[in-house]
Amino acid sequence: MTAVESSDPTAPAPVGRARLLVVVGLLVLVTLVIGVIVGRVTASGTPMPGESSAEAGFARDMKVHHGQAVEMSLLVRDRTDDSEIRLLALDIATAQTQQQGQMFAWLAMWGLPQTASADEMEWLARPVIDGSSGHDGHGDHVPGEPMPGVASFEQMQALQNSTGVEAERLYLELMIEHHIGGVEMAEAVIARSDHPLVTQLAQGMVQLQQKELDYMAELLADRS
Q: What is the C-alpha separation between 34 and 38, in angstroms, rounded?
């Protein structure tokens, strides 16, 4: 793991303070990332994705998807004193907040709104780019239904109301499903985009979240 913990890893951070730090970090990151993206895209001559593109749809939906992962991670850090879980949650919250900033910056640079009137996951209707039939195994999702891996309101309430090992176990179960859904979404945009910034970030998501899935499975087995 790469995140740096506080000097007392067992001391729960106030959730308000943690959320404030995440928001401030996101705003700083967005400013930096917009400048980097503008420079790269200008130099490469890469076309700007349009309003109904897979790239725009993925960015909007994945920002929301990541938002729930960050929320779950901040919740569990206030509900356990286990150093492994707290560090995992911090790593996930940090990485996914940074990625939210990147996707926010893409949409800002492309001149597109951060939200769209289209249904969630509607971009899966876009054809894949390899010239095949257009069905890559990710196109069966019904637009408007919850994104893959997203926890229900009841599941989020259960996490909020739990503590200790119960909270750790529920967090791991929910985050495993959340990561599986995130990997599915990332693979779907890779099949539908040749935009270098989008595919690079999506490939990084797949690699990181698959490693975290293996680690979370080990942590969950220890708590069974």
A: 6
Dihedral over Cα of 160, 162, 163, 166: its sign = negative
Identify residue 66 by its one-letter amino acid code.
H
pLDDT in tens, 16-67: 444 445 444 544 454 455 445 554 554 456 789 999 999 999 999 999 999 9
CATH for the 15-222 domain, from 3.30.750.24, 1.20.1260.10, 3.40.50.2000, 1.10.10.10: 1.20.1260.10
DSSP 141: S
- SS3 call for 115: coil
Which two tokens mark 151? Answer: 């926890």
DSSP 13: P
Query: Which positions ≥6 away from 224 have C-beta within 8 Å?
Result: 169
Q: What is the Cα–Cα distance from 203 to 182, expressed in whole angstroms?
A: 11
Query: 204: closest CA among 85, 57, 96?
Result: 96
Distance of CA 10 to the CA centre of its chain: 26
pLDDT confidence of 138, banded at 50, 70, 90? low
Q: Which helix (H) or strand (E) holds 7?
A: none
